[in-house]
Amino acid sequence: MSEGAIPARRRPAGLGRGLSALMGEVEREQPVGADAERSEGVRLLPIAVIRPHPDQPRRHFDEEKLEELAQSIAERGVLQPIVVRKVGTGYQIVAGERRWRASQRARLHEIPALVRELDDTQTLEIAIIENIQRADLNAIEEAEAYQRLISDFGHSQEALGKLVQKSRSHVANLLRLLDLPAPVRQDVANGSLTMGHARALITAPDPEKLAADVIKRGLSVRETEKLARSVKPAGRETREPKSGKAAPNADIAALERQLGDMLGLAVKIGHGEAGGTVTLSYSTLDQLDMICQRLSGERI
Question: Are 33 and 111 in the same domain?
Fold first, then answer.
């Protein structure tokens, strides 16, 4: 994430007034300096009294990028405040843990922060939304965060889809990844496998063994899907159909799934000799807004 100032822009209204207002307020904050305590809503807090949220969805922090951010903060300071809530005698991070970690590495003693009164549900929702908008969560982290909102706070898959501007089927597909063996989930978390690879392995009789094979051979998602279909529970292999049209159609279906995983929406590709069409399906204005932002290159 860039530490530069972020221009004000409208947040989608579908996140709920309270949540939307907070996220919008964070984005509207101007770059802060030594006089941050005089800015309304922003104060300088000692880094020592701030703690990360124990259920922060993001578990993996790229060491190289974290070091780059620390160097930037050492030179220019923290340009965007983190969001915290009061817990006991200290503060708990709601959004901005990476900036807090980098500030520690930069040997800062204070960090600009917005202090807000938030309950556990709002805190987790904001953390998920911030990370998803910045593409900071891997598929397993995102799935685990969704599962917690479902199990601990009673969210439905449909409600989660509206919250993060993704389709219900995207949320359901992510949650299915949690059925994979722990070693395979770890491969997804560390980037050895993509969400597309993982989805192809879910119904395989021995996903852990196949995952190791996929990584070793560097197979694509399409090749992984073929491999998973070819293996029967008893170990017998089946042959792929030899129809001339089967492979292209299967390739297009794989591409639809890959694009769908990236956008969190249903994608349909109509391909012909003279070209074709790509159709993105949305069910809310928030999802349409997200599509427009992706196509225009705006920050999400």
Answer: yes
**Does residue 258 lie within any of the structural domains?**
no
Is residue 55 a part of any domain in this protein? yes
What angle do the packed helices 246-263 and 285-296 form, to 10 degrees?
100
Series of mean pLDDT values for 10-residue runs along the chain (300 residues):
41 40 47 41 89 79 84 88 90 90 92 90 80 73 85 82 81 90 92 90 90 93 87 53 52 75 76 81 73 65
Distance separating alpha carbons of residues 177 and 122, to the nearest angstrom? 25
Catalytic positions are 97
In this structure, are residues 141 and 61 in contact, taking their beta carbons and an 8 Å threshold? no
Match 């992510």 to its residue by tokens. 174
Q: What is the pTM of this model?
A: 0.56
DSSP 93: E
User: Contact 56/93 with Cβ under 8 angstroms?
Assistant: yes
What residues contact 192, with CB distance under 8 A and at least 6 apart?
215
Are 65 and 170 part of one and the same domain?
no
- Other Cβ atoms closer than 10 A to 259: 17
